[in-house]
Amino acid sequence: MEAGKAVIVAVAVPARRMLNLKITPTARRYFGASPTCRRQSLDPRNNFAPKEYLGKEIVDDYAILRDQYETPENPIVLAHGLLGFAELKLAGSFLPSIHYWHGIKDALSRRNCEVITTTVPPSSSVEQRAAELARGIEARAQGKSVNIIAHSMGGLDARYMISQLKPASVRVKSLVTVATPHHGSTFADYLMDEIGPERLPSLYNIWERITGFETGAFNQLTKRYMTEDFNPKTPDDPEVRYFSYGAMVHEKPPLLSPFRLSHGIIHGIEGPNDGLVSVQSSRWGTYKGTLSGVNHLDLINWSNRFRFTLQRWMGRPPTFNAIAFCLDITDMLAKEGL
């Protein structure tokens, strides 16, 4: 879940009021017990000691750009998450385009990486998104092997494409997932519990009429769907290298943050998270570490400039640069011979 998830949080609250939703007993459960009790009693995945499931805690490794980065042999595919896009033009040529991977594609290209950005249906099912991902790679890669870097739900699309669709003209050497909810999201569970099955069709209808987007993705992000359906049916390809990163913020998001509600709910059940995806859910394949003090939008360079400026004024320069992070991923892939 990412740039678009802020939209979900913004839409969910007004929709809840419009449909007169009430807090269900299940939803109360998210807030009723102490964080320690909730994590131990409600989440079967929570069997890691804290330091163990965080893996390497990455604090300031990507604060600044290095002078040298190696370039991988194969093109890089950037796969966006829920409600994402490659490039968005709001006013034709009158205003600059908005890029999901803000500044990242250009930075990789300047370092001689061949970069492919793909666009999939914003909130369609994983199956539909994966099919479009395959078509996008087929059209752009021209038979070359590729390395995929995927943010949030984009990692699920890529896993499904590799495991289930197996497009003949797409050869994936590696998949690097960044804050992908491989084991589902407590926040998705919370929203489904809050809305209730009897109200879901109405809310989905409102969503489709307002946005024009399909709704297949939303119930696929629940913990039950991911652990009981998706993961058992989507095994890894032994010929593909899988890497993953997670992220976490340390403090409760400010009042106006789109992550204020979601962070608290996820933290109460799953522990450290980036505002939308927990560290535990982010782990898949070779876990490279947890980015410390980084939220879900920071990962794609949609950082809050005011927050970073305020930190500098307070003598605390930012400790994360998304471009440096993505360049380091490509450097790692090059060193792995990919």
Automatic annotation (TrEMBL):
Superkingdom to which the source organism belongs: Eukaryota
SUPFAM superfamilies: alpha/beta-Hydrolases
GO molecular function list: triacylglycerol lipase activity
Bilayer-spanning residue ranges: none
Domain DUF7379: 124-189
Pfam family name, one: DUF7379
Gene Ontology annotations of biological process type: lipid metabolic process
InterPro entries named among the record's database cross-references: AB_hydrolase_fold (IPR029058), DUF7379 (IPR055803)
PANTHER family: LECITHIN-CHOLESTEROL ACYLTRANSFERASE-RELATED
Name of the protein described by the UniProt record: Triacylglycerol lipase
